[in-house]
């Protein structure tokens, strides 16, 4: 199928703002709220156990050791050991559950994006580079892995730890607590500034990664390698890739260093806080302030040190979340793509399909700004009949063929199969009704059998052989070293153009559609190969409604009707002989073909 005019797809602007985006992220975790509740309980229990340790230490220093109470000392020491064991066990369990939940969310995102793209019209893919799509699924979702697998749990765990620790610090000495927390608002402000900076850099970095992915996909495919080497452009392609990679290096370094010095200052200040606490307590005692016991002071510093780790982690988590918002935004852009071709709420299902196809006042244009590609098409192809569509390049032939299987939707009039508008049919009926054999054959990097079974997964070996015989390709397949288990290679490059085309025909025969669209299926083949493929097409077309988009007129002479398209309109309609007698556009095309035929 010919792609529509080349344009660059741009995502819709995000008008919901950051709060809406955060709500959408939280919605992703809703199906797993039961498991997250268990994680919350484990986090709370772990935090309480951890906070208990400094209180046990205070009793050891202030009571058990000074009073020589060996039994109490042993009990308190055992409590500290038990606290460490329980905290570790709770940590392992919460990591297991949170990682599982995070990976399930990643799976849901990947599946949702892939499913959304599967429902997009052909127009989207003609405007979007394949590498860009792959980058969204691989790099963007992969970049969110740390956020969805550990950040949520880290946020809850560290918040709980910070709150529990502050409460414990207040219980020990509220005055020292005020001294410890005086700079906390400044730290929060700094971390937010760092998060905003990293979010902007992350957005640019992911776009650059998408550019590189697109470059790799295009230039390192089999076709890209062949083109680069035959044109002598391998070195320039490598140089271009190096330039793109250099830009990514700069962005990676900037992303890594963004706010690093500011966060380092926070770490230094918080690490120095114990010394400040000892200094403040000593000055207070020297100048007649309230006395603080040694056990209380040590326990408080222990809590303050315990506060340091989750507080810094919490600030870092906030920065990481800010960076991840850029990734979520790119994913949500794809999830919010409007779907042009949808199934009706109550679609029509046909158990038996005869195959009559009608074009009733059909108009099609790619967008509101462009003129019509097809205009006022009225044609009928009876069940089992054949229609050939010919015309000069740009007349709208391939677009005409795209309308029956709903690769595009008409913008005026309607296309019907057995009297039912194709827009009213359910997707299953339409897929069973219409088969397409295009000029460019696509084969997966899999075995011949797997490629054929893509049309019918439950097909038996005998059915494969029957379809291949009808397509004139069975003997060639069996002559291969591995027969039907032979891997066809990337995009089928182990096979010639004619062999790939016959494999595509065998695949369509296996599908057995009542309506067949042949889009210039032999135009790229030499005359000898075309003859072999044409025999396979004749076998495929028998007793089917066939619409042939033709470049070589020699393949359409026997069609029941021949429609000549010119500037999107049916300029002539009739049989081969009738159109020759009119001495019009068709006769001119035939004469042109006759002049080109001797030169191949």
**From the coordinates shown, what is the CATH architecture of the largest domain?**
Up-down Bundle
Count of DSSP-assigned helices: 21
Low-confidence stretches: 1-15
Q: Which structural class should the secondary elements be placed in? A: alpha/beta
CATH homologous superfamily caption of the largest domain: ABC transporter type 1, transmembrane domain
Describe the largest sheet: 6 strands, mixed
Shape: elongated
Percent range of helical residues:
55-70%
Total number of distinct structural domains? 2
Strand order of the largest sheet: 6-7-8-3-9-10
Taking all residues together, what is the mean pLDDT? Answer: 78
Strand content: 5-15%
Instruction: List how many beta strands DSSP finds.
Output: 10
What is the CATH topology descriptor of the largest domain?
Answer: ABC transporter transmembrane region fold
**Separation of the first and last Cα atoms:** 23 Å
Alpha carbon gyration radius:
35 Å
Q: What's the CATH class label of the largest domain? A: Mainly Alpha
Describe the structure.
The chain is an alpha/beta fold. It folds into 2 domains: 18-336, Up-down Bundle (ABC transporter transmembrane region fold); 357-595, 3-Layer(aba) Sandwich (Rossmann fold). The protein has helices at 17-28, 33-64, 70-118, 122-127, 130-143, 145-172, 174-181, 184-219, 222-230, 234-257, 260-286, 294-335, 397-403, 427-433, 448-453, 461-470, 474-479, 497-511, 527-541, 576-582, 585-596; strands at residues 357-364, 374-381, 386-390, 412-417, 420-421, 434-438, 515-519, 545-549, 561-566, 569-574. The strands form 2 sheets. Strands 6-7-8-3-9-10 form a 6-stranded mixed sheet, with helices on both faces. Strands 2-1-4-5 form a 4-stranded antiparallel sheet, covered by helices on one side. One of its GO terms (biological process) is oligopeptide export from mitochondrion. InterPro entries: AAA+_ATPase (IPR003593), ABC1_TM_dom (IPR011527), ABC1_TM_sf (IPR036640), ABC_transporter-like_ATP-bd (IPR003439), ABC_transporter-like_CS (IPR017871), P-loop_NTPase (IPR027417), Type_1_exporter (IPR039421).
């Amino acid at each position: 199928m010919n792609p529509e005019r080349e344009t660059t797809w741009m995502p819709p602007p995000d008008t919901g703002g950051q709060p809406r985006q955060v709500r959408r992220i939280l919605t992703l975790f809703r199906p797993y709220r039961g498991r997250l509740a268990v994680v919350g309980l484990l986090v709370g229990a772990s935090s309480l156990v951890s906070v208990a340790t400094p209180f046990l230490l205070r009793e050891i220093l202030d009571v058990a050791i000074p009073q020589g109470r060996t039994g109490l000392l042993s009990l308190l020491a055992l409590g500290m050991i038990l606290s460490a064991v329980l905290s570790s066990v709770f940590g392992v369990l919460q990591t297991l559950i949170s990682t599982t939940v995070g990976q399930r969310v990643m799976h849901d995102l990947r599946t949702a994006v892939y499913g959304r793209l599967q429902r997009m019209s052909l127009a989207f893919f003609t405007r979007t580079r394949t590498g860009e799509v792959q980058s969204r699924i691989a790099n963007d979702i992969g970049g969110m892995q740390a956020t969805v697998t550990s950040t949520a749990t880290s946020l809850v765990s560290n918040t709980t730890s910070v709150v529990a620790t502050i409460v414990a610090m207040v219980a020990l000495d509220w005055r020292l607590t005020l001294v410890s927390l005086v700079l906390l608002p400044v730290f929060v402000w700094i971390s937010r500034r760092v998060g905003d900076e990293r979010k902007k850099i992350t957005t640019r970095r992911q776009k650059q990664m998408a550019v590189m992915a697109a470059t790799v996909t295009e230039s390192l495919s089999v076709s890209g390698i062949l083109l680069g080497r035959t044109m002598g452009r391998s070195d320039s392609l490598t140089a271009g890739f190096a330039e793109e990679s250099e830009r990514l290096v700069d962005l990676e370094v900037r992303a890594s260093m963004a706010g690093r010095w500011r966060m380092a200052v926070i770490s230094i200040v918080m690490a120095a806080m114990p010394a400040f606490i000892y200094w403040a307590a000593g000055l207070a005692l020297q100048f007649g302030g309230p006395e603080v016991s040694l056990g209380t002071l040590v326990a408080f510093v222990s809590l303050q040190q315990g506060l340091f780790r989750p507080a810094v982690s919490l600030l870092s988590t906030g920065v990481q979340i800010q960076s991840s918002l850029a990734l979520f935004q790119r994913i949500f852009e794809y999830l919010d793509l409007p779907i042009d071709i949808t199934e009706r709420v109550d679609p029509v299902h046909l158990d038996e399909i005869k195959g009559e196809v009608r074009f009733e006042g059909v108009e099609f244009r790619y967008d509101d700004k462009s003129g019509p590609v097809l205009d006022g098409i009225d044609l009928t192809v009876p069940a089992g009949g054949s229609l050939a569509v010919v015309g000069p390049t740009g007349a709208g032939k391939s677009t005409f063929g795209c309308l029956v299987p709903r690769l595009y939707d008409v913008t005026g009039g309607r296309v019907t199969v057995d009297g039912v508008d194709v827009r009213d049919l359910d997707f299953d009926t339409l897929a069973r009704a219409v088969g397409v054999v295009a000029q460019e054959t696509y084969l997966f990097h899999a075995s011949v059998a797997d490629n054929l079974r893509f049309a019918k997964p439950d097909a038996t070996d005998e059915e494969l052989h029957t379809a291949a015989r009808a397509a004139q390709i069975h003997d060639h397949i069996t002559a291969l070293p591995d027969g039907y288990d032979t891997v066809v290679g990337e995009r089928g490059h182990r096979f010639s153009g004619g062999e790939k085309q016959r494999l595509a025909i065998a695949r369509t025969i296996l599908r057995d559609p009542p309506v067949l669209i042949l889009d210039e299926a032999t135009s790229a083949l030499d005359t000898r190969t075309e003859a072999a493929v044409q025999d396979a097409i004749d076998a495929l077309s028998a007793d089917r409604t066939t619409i042939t988009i033709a470049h070589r007129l020699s393949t359409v002479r026997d069609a029941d009707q021949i429609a000549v398209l010119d500037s999107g309109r049916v300029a002539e309609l009739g049989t081969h002989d009738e159109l020759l007698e009119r001495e019009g556009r068709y006769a001119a095309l035939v004469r042109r073909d006759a002049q080109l035929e001797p030169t191949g």
